[in-house]
From TrEMBL:
Domain of life: Bacteria
Needed cofactors: pyridoxal 5'-phosphate
Residue ranges occupied by any Aromatic amino acid beta-eliminating lyase/threonine aldolase domain in the UniProt entry: 57-286
Pfam family, one: Beta_elim_lyase
InterPro entries registered for this protein in UniProt: ArAA_b-elim_lyase/Thr_aldolase, PyrdxlP-dep_Trfase, PyrdxlP-dep_Trfase_major, PyrdxlP-dep_Trfase_small
Cell inner membrane found in the keyword field: no
Alphabetical list of Gene3D superfamilies matching this protein: Aspartate Aminotransferase, domain 1 (3.90.1150.10), Type I PLP-dependent aspartate aminotransferase-like (Major domain) (3.40.640.10)
Annotated Gene Ontology cellular component terms: cytosol
Family: Belongs to the threonine aldolase family.
Protein name: Threonine aldolase
GO terms, molecular function: L-allo-threonine aldolase activity
Keywords tagged on the record: Pyridoxal phosphate
GO terms classed as biological process: glycine biosynthetic process; L-threonine catabolic process
């Protein structure tokens, strides 16, 4: 069974990596040799490769922390090997500082969905939900919570709901209510990098709303792995103590740090362009479904807030994934990747990410590609 699964994964990777037309590079595109060549090439433009490798977080890792704090406009930043670790540490530290182990967050937030109850199992924190609606919580909902909470954690954007963002006034109002209730505010900003166009604000102004911010380096920026916490110098110093306790003080992390620096140089300036293009891609996908005679399609949100969004179609997930693989193998076109069941029979959804490769397509080409893809769904 394991061998069969690995064969399926390898076939999909080969198809999508080998495609000549795609909307994004993909998170694991390329062989080991290709990724090493890319790291050497792009790393040389981002950092002096004649320098020594890092040891327990100095040199290139320290430079990444400096650049991250500078980009977000915070006093300091600390590199973490994973975002899961970074957020658990941040929320644990705030619980100690506020003397309140209750965290208010959305039930669709990453710690609630993907971390196996780590907040309660490892840190003893408990979570309350301001809302069950598939959107960001309103300020009135945060105000209406019936018990005290020490930290309000907001995921920007809310991935599971379609990479949704509030508008700027909604966000500032929600943050203000948390302050009124004597709570601190933490931004789960794994994809914060791509939020600036929607808010019409720079990253420092966005980050300034929160007491701490988590950002990812492999989401949006295309790094190998890794994350950072950003905030006041005093708070970040405390988080590095817990980073060590959690096993995050790795001996060498230079490949991840180097790729993150390259991503800050290469991808960050282009994210507004990707966000604008995603809006056009969403319209082209919708037009393609109509041209193919598909009676129902849902794009969430209708106008993407970032350069990522969800597409829902009335087909079986396995059939859609197989059609995506066959399309890439037979035509070299990779519009979609993995499709997932939506909890209802015969309906599935996928995430669409628009990056540099997606800029080369005309909307007419995307529409035609959708028609061809749907003709292969069995």
């Amino acid at each position: 069974m394991a061998e069969e699964h690995e064969a399926v994964v390898r076939r999909r990777l080969a198809a999508w990596t080998g495609a000549t037309r795609k909307l994004s590079r993909g998170p694991v595109a390329g062989t080991l040799a290709e990724r090493l060549d890319q790291l050497a090439r792009e790393g040389a433009e981002a950092y002096d490769l004649s320098d020594w490798t890092d040891t327990y977080g100095n040199r290139v890792v320290a430079e990444l922390e400096r650049r991250t704090a500078e980009t977000l406009g915070t006093e300091a930043a600390a590199f973490f090997p994973t975002g899961t670790m970074a957020q658990q540490v941040a929320l644990r530290c705030w619980a100690g500082r506020t003397a309140n182990r209750t965290v208010a967050m959305h039930p669709l937030a990453h710690p609630e969905q993907w971390e196996r109850d780590a907040l309660s199992q490892l840190t003893g924190l408990r979570v309350v939900h301001p809302t069950q609606a598939p959107r960001m919580p309103y300020d009135s909902e945060v105000r209406a919570l019936r018990e005290p909470f020490g930290t309000l954690a907001l995921e920007l954007p809310l991935r599971e709901a379609g990479f949704l963002l509030p508008d700027w006034d909604e966000l500032t109002a929600t943050v203000a209510v948390a302050r009124e209730r004597d709570a601190v505010v933490h931004f789960d900003g794994a994809r914060l990098w791509e939020c600036a166009p929607h808010f019409g604000r720079g990253l420092p102004e966005i980050a300034e709303l929160a007491d701490s911010v988590y950002v990812s380096f492999y989401k949006s920026l295309g790094g190998l792995s890794g994350a950072a916490l950003a905030g006041s110098a005093e708070f970040i110093e405390e988080t590095t103590t817990w980073r060590h306790r959690y096993g995050g003080q790795l001996f060498q992390q230079w490949p991840a740090a180097l790729s993150a620096l390259a991503g800050l140089d290469r991808e960050l300036p282009r994210l507004p362009e990707y966000v604008a293009r995603a809006k056009e891609v969403a319209e082209a996908l919708r037009a393609g479904c109509t041209a193919a005679g598909v009676s129902w399609v849902r794009i969430q949100p209708e106008v993407p807030h970032t350069h990522q969004f969800l597409v829902w179609l009335p087909y079986d997930a396995e059939a859609l994934t197989e059609a995506a693989v066959r399309t890439a193998e037979e035509t070299g076109v990779a519009l979609f990747r993995i499709w997932d069941h939506a909890g209802l029979p015969g309906i599935a959804h996928t995430e669409v990410l628009v990056e540099e490769p997606g800029l080369a397509w005309s909307t007419a080409e995307i529409t035609a590609a959708v028609v061809d893809f749907l003709s292969r769904v069995r």
